[in-house]
Design goal:
Helix content is 76%, strand content 0%. The chain is mostly helical. The chain has one domain. Helix 1 runs antiparallel to helix 3. It is globular and about 45 Å long. The termini are far apart. Pfam families: DUF5658 (PF18902).
Length: 104
């Protein structure tokens, strides 16, 4: 009997990516409130227009990333997800470094 709902092997990567994307949104918002600067020009413009819309867009992308975890993907796309995971881990570490530096 074939299951209607099948867990994809890349679901964990997408769940972690979604969590890191949401954390990035919150850390970025916090740093921008302290006078930091958004490096992504598109997101910077969105934040300058309205911080709430910035957060809604970031959380919408979080939802999309998690939803992708339930879709069958080719191996090449799964590799790209793994690369994105490494990049987001670096971004979150960078946020921690900046926050520690700003506290001093």
């Amino acid at each position: 009997m074939d299951r209607v709902f099948r867990i994809q092997k890349h679901l964990w990567i997408c769940l972690i990516l979604g969590f890191l994307n949401a954390a990035d949104a919150l850390f970025t918002h916090q740093l921008l409130q302290k006078g930091g600067r958004e490096l992504n020009p598109l997101m910077r413009g969105l934040y300058e227009y309205d911080p709430t819309i910035f957060l809604l867009v970031k959380f919408f992308f979080t939802y999309l990333i998690i939803a992708i975890g339930f879709i069958p993907l080719k191996t090449r796309i799964q590799v790209l997800l793994s690369i994105a995971l490494v990049v987001y881990i670096i971004v979150i570490v960078w946020h921690f470094i900046i926050n520690i530096w700003l506290v001093k």
